[in-house]
Amino acid sequence: MPPGNEYAAEQLKAKGNAHFKNGEYESAEGFYSQAIQKNSKNPLLFTNRANARLKLERWQDVIDDCIKSIELMQENMKAFFYLAQAQLAINHPNEALSSALMAYELCSRSSQQTSNAATISALVLKCKKAKWEIRERDRIRRRHALLADLEIKLEEEYKKDVFDIDERIQNGEIGQVEAQEEKAERKGEWERKVKDLRTAFALSDPENMKIREVPDYLVDGITFEIMHDPVVTKNGRSYERATIIEHLKRSATDPLTREPLTIAELRPNIALKEACTEFMEANSGWIYDW
Question: Where is the U-box domain (predicted)?
């Protein structure tokens, strides 16, 4: 690659960054694309464009950019982070969870003191809950054929609304900001209708229609499993004792805040342990599948 191309790519990237900072994601995407034409071997250019495309909700394009970036640089935390978000958006929680866990692993191995860990941890938990929610939806639908038919109908109507909005974007009838607002409104309407529908069915079959979910505060921030023996750090965060000790043997920092932390500073979280035990006992019929 001629040296001038690399310099030109950096200049175009800087212009893209400026537009991205101003919320001008279409323009940012355009400059990142020009930069990639100049230097297609730079994985960071693909993650930059993927981030702009995330804002534009161009999910498949995000996935394509992230995969290309990972091909160029395997230990690519940002690419896996953006990839997980796009996969989750197109309702592929299994793949999203794998990508988010990889981003979290790469973040935990990073020597940089950043706030990425907490953000990625939240995404991992979101992906895991989305995966569980699909299993719950399928369980409930198997029990109630009519509910399944009605939910599928609502989902088809929602997808048609989103498709119509995308067509209006392509035809230049509405801009990206207005489109995103409309999509958010349609999604909210769809989710409310599904919730109301399930509530109506729950009145006739409360035992089997009961929502099964795990509260976030019972989940360990390292393994993302329900805690059995939680300990609390000096800043008030709780972790499973075995996992935080294993982490501190490798790195004497809080895995989420990256603040200095030692094993001696851990204290038993008795109240949380009682809550975890009570929850496990009350939900022993399904909790091990979570």
Answer: 213-286
CA distance 68 to 53: 14
Q: How far is CA 120 from CA 163, 192, 224, in A?
A: 30, 28, 12
The reply to whether 133 falls in a domain is no
pLDDT of residue 115: 59
Q: Is residue 195 part of a domain?
A: yes
Measured CA angle at 70 (ends 183, 248), to 5 deg:
95
Per DSSP, the residues of the chain read: --HHHHHHHHHHHHHHHHHHHTT-HHHHHHHHHHHHHH-TT-HHHHHHHHHHHHHTT-HHHHHHHHHHHHHH-SS-HHHHHHHHHHHHHTT-HHHHHHHHHHHHHHHHH--S--SHHHHHHHHHHHHHHHHHHHHHHHHHHHH-HHHHHHHHHHHHHHHHHHHHHHHHHHTTSS-HHHHHHHHHHHHHHHHHHHHHHHHHHHTT-HHHHS-----GGGB-TTT-SB-SSEEE-TTS-EEEHHHHHHHHHH-SB-TTT--B--GGG-EE-HHHHHHHHHHHHHTTTTGGG-
Q: Collect all residues with Cβ–Cβ distance below 8 Å to 83 and sequence separation of at least 6.
A: 50, 62, 63, 66, 67, 70, 96, 99
The per-residue pLDDT for 74 is 92
Could you tell me the residue range of the domain that residue 114 belongs to?
3-128
Query: Total structural domains in the chain?
Result: 3
Q: What sign does the dihedral 264-265-266-272 (CA atoms) show?
A: positive
Domain annotation covers residue 140:
no
Confidence of residue 180 (pLDDT cuts 50, 70, 90): confident
CATH code of the domain covering residue 32: 1.25.40.10
pTM higher than 0.85, yes or no?
A: no
